[in-house]
Design goal:
SBP; D-Maltodextrin-Binding Protein, domain 2; about 35% helix; Extracellular solute-binding protein; seven-stranded mixed beta sheet; alpha+beta; about 550 residues
Amino acid sequence: MKNSKFLLLPAMIALISLTGCKKNEVQTGHDDLGFIPESVTSYQGDIDVLLYIEGQSGEMRDIGNPKRTQSDFFDAALARFGAAAREFRNIAPGVRINVRYTSIANYNDSIMAYISEKGHVPHIMHGTDHVNEMIQKGYATDLTKYKDSELYKSYDDGILNEFKFGGFQGAFPYMIYPMGVFVNTRLFESSQANYGDFDALLADYTFENFVEACENAKNFDANVAALPHMQQDFVSYMAPSINQSYKFDRRVELNNSLVEDLLALEKRLYDTVAYEYIVGNNNSPKPGMDDAGIADWNGNKDFIQNDRYVFNAEMPWNLGLLSLMATEAGKEADFDYLPWPKADEDSENVVGMIAEGLTIGNQCPLDATGTARCVEGGELATDVAAYFTMFLTNDPRSLEARSEIDWLNIDEPVKGVLDLPTVDKNFKFSFQAEDEENAFYLQLRDWLECYSTWWEKESEDDVPDVYNYENIKPGFKQVLEIFYGEDETRRINFYGIPDNLPNAQGGTDDIMKEWIGRYNCNNILISDSTWVSTVRARLSEWEDSINQKIDAVYNYFQ
């Protein structure tokens, strides 16, 4: 399959016009592709971004400065913004992108500190709150006013709509990941003498069969567990009446026989995981695994390098990182990535989705009378922030720059920072010839070539089949078919389900708190023999409470 690239002819490359060289004259820009309006390309000023980078805090002003080197970009987020901002300078040389970053726990406090300092919210925010909560707080701009721009039209509508609430487009897609189950296929097949091979599991991939495979895989005497921890997401995503129903029908049904059966299977699954479920301390290995040298903070290494787990259902955002680790360890052939198991024979496999968005800060908040009160220059700064964000995520020039950026991952040199496509499969940019490959396929191929664990290369000339997925590994093939398939009900956005309801005290109530916390039900832990019956007895009560809160949160939001 031809591995084509976008070729931007010299006449089509954005040019920078320098209006003389007098001290007080400024640089103005131009976009020959016509994606970025002149009001943005001629803008002179700063655009401030607030990101979260766990365990870090700081600021990088003018992140797109061409003098910046690899050592400046010590995180993937900084590399993304650095590459895009550097490329954006060729179009809008007067725009300076400044990035502040902080830990997750401090993010909301950092917004308040920024407001106190500047008098307005940051221009671009990668928030820890769900987008609907950013809207509720008045932090977000409605982005539908950009719907006629070519970059806006390039987004996959299904993904873009994950950030739309009541007609309010609260964010642009930034990064998307499928949520499913990692598997070490070599360990799996060596542990399944009484079950069959990996293909047999995929052919009848129900939760019951998955649990049986985990029971066969568990070998604490050999320091091997089926999974590191329990994950409540299994049942929440598998059961059609829980997350799927919440997302698409705004109702949850817990009190039914299928959920009751899944709880019994969940109890069996607990016996196969490496770590005890202990309130406030989930990093205590079980007897038999406590001498395996595993560490909760070292889970990726224990999974990829040390062969301690057959499956792993944690950290889907590490698809790229785990692939790089497998490549470095010479273990690319050992791993695959699966959808969630089916709840039963009558259900379908689904994948979760983590769709992270970039919110454009509201520089024109409403006063008590409903009148917009814009900060000075706020409307134009909002436009610049919006067009830069669309450029960062979907413009082919930005994606090319991001594929070339040199950065560091825990002091290890890395080239390129790529994400799965958010562009529509069928979209063709106006500068492209009719026979040129659509951006979606180019971006997906680049991603797979960078993270080569997820496909099978039979010769040096092979490239990933991004049309029919013929040489994609069998589990990940199913993931891609569902993730980018026509039936959007099989792709359930983790951030698309409101999880908090504002209360009268000015705080929030967790909508599904009791269900999500079911591993400790009235001080009966999942390790206790009476756990299943205790949880089953509460399902009707929890269901009523959750549905009342769902009604309230959507009424509040509308």
